[in-house]
Amino acid sequence: MSRRNSSIFILLISFILFFVSTELFGNEKFIDTAAVLSSSGESSLKLPDFYMVLPFFILLLMIATGPLFYRHFWERHYPKISILLGLIIVIYYIFFLKDTGSLVHTLAEYISFIALLSSLFVASGGILIKVDRKATPMLNVIVLLFGAVIANIIGTTGASMLLIRPFIKINKDRIKPYHIIFFIFIVSNIGGALTPIGDPPLFLGFLRGVEFFWFIQHVWYIWLPTILAVAGFFFIIDSRNEESAEKVSRIYSNQIEFKGFRNIIYLMIIVISVFIDPAVISWVPNLHPLPIGLREIIMFSMVYISYKTSDKASLKANEFDFEPIKEVAFLFVGIFATMIPALQLIAYEAKINGKDLTPGIFYWATGLLSAFLDNAPTYLNFLAAEMGKFDLDINHKIEVLKFEIEHPVYLTAISVAAVFFGAMTYIGNGPNFMVKSISERAGIKMPTFFGFLIKYSIPILLPIFFFIWLIFFYGEV
Amino acid sequence: MNNLNEIIEKNIHGLYYGSRVLLPFSAVILKAVIESDIITDFSSHSKDALVTLTEDYTEIYFLEYKDIEESIKQFENIKLVLVEKGKDIFDFQNHEKIALYLEENHKLRIEKINDDILFIE
Hints:
The complex is a heterodimer of chains A (477) and B (121).
Chain A: H1 3-25, H2 33-38, H3 54-69, H4 71-96, H5 101-125, E1 128-131, H6 137-170, H7 177-186, H8 200-208, H9 214-240, H10 242-247, E2 256-259, H11 261-273, H12 294-309, H13 312-317, H14 323-352, H15 359-372, H16 375-389, H17 397-406, H18 408-420, H19 430-441, H20 449-473
Antiparallel strand pairs in A: 1-2
Helix pairs in contact in A: 1-4, 3-4, 3-14, 4-14, 5-6, 5-11, 5-12, 5-14, 6-7, 6-9, 6-19, 7-9, 8-16, 9-18, 9-20, 11-12, 14-16, 14-19, 15-16, 15-18, 16-18, 18-20
Chain B: H1 4-9, E1 14-17, E2 20-23, E3 27-34, E4 37-39, E5 49-53, E6 58-62, H2 68-71, E7 78-84, E8 96-102, E9 107-112
Antiparallel strand pairs in B: 1-2, 1-9, 2-6, 3-4, 3-7, 5-6, 7-8, 8-9
């Protein structure tokens, strides 16, 4: 059995073990973390021991240090490491906490996450955009701003997959790692803060009852200056790189070539399928107890159909391969599983200390955790904690509606933080890793985990995020 | 001995076995990209690749890969920047970018990289 097959085998065994155990111990009501900790303030299930966050920190540490210090060991064994660390938590929850509800809920979120990412990845992999124009800082800024806008229509993942290759092609004679980093900042993260389609945390908020257009109404005045500030930084840095572009003597046709209109239709189907959820449309069947819905079935079908019907020449030109999505799938199966205890403990702490927490604290807490954890469940837990502060329950849509009307600054704080801070690390948001992987295959030496953080995120993003806090959330109660 | 252009015109294949790649011409390798690995160290101490040049062919061992066939899939390739033996290595005009595709029976299809495929030198 090959390494790849053995990893898939372990993954399948894990799922089977998990489902068998759900049947054996599945007497607990289907409860998710937010629900457990929001309604009454008392947890109906036992909280995990603090040391159970260790697998999560080990995994994060290995993701950070593996490519740096033991690259080839990591490249060979990361699927097994991720799954085994995840299994520790699965076994702990099944046999010690006897809480399968949290596991089922996390599995459902993971499947939704992978369904959306993989379908957007495959559908956009068959689209070939060729832009034969001279790269200038202004043209690059326009592409990044365009990406930020369409991220709200096809998601940050769709926008990233669609634009990363053309963006590299435009700059192929002058490309530097900072081009890719700013692409991750703007297109893969910050851009998608205006609609629930843009980024998964906002979508979870939408499913809980936040109105679709609430985000654009309450976030645009933060989104716009942030995007312009980051793009401004990029423009300054890229302008210094203009000399190297001038040395390249090429004749440009200024033509834009587009192949793969069929895949655009697939992308539209995927985006529309986001709304095919029993929580949004009443006639959509709920497939519970299966951890999958009609939406995920449509998305996985689009993966198959897109791959089978995409233009082979476009796939070849894009060097299409499942490796980037496989990497995300294996790493995030471990991340999703191991972060369950961390998120439950955070939610509990937020709940018991909620009365003293201000929008500013929620902003920083949601943001800093979203940089290293998955931002979707982080967002949901802090939404539950915020609502708990005002004796509102996240499980009732009418109360979510009341919360968004009466306490918009709280919802704005966590919405902005969850999306924006995802840009801080490679693991902050799903598309970050994919963009990194595509860039490396194109021959671009990308910074390490710490290099990304120290050279780019902290000096560029953190001051901007600090000013957002100072202007919009400091002093708010 | 054929040069690169003749090899592409005549559709002459290279070969691959396990971690070993054989190019049917002699060239100095400057950069290789296999999967996400970007290799620029081709010294005798390199942990990534070992290159041997003869009059008729170039041999590359990708040391971190037991079997490259397991890693390189249908639409994927190995990318190389190289300079044919005898040409001025310092003249960028002589830097050739090629893509290697794995085919059945250990055949290695060699193509020059066109504008469609991303490869940054």
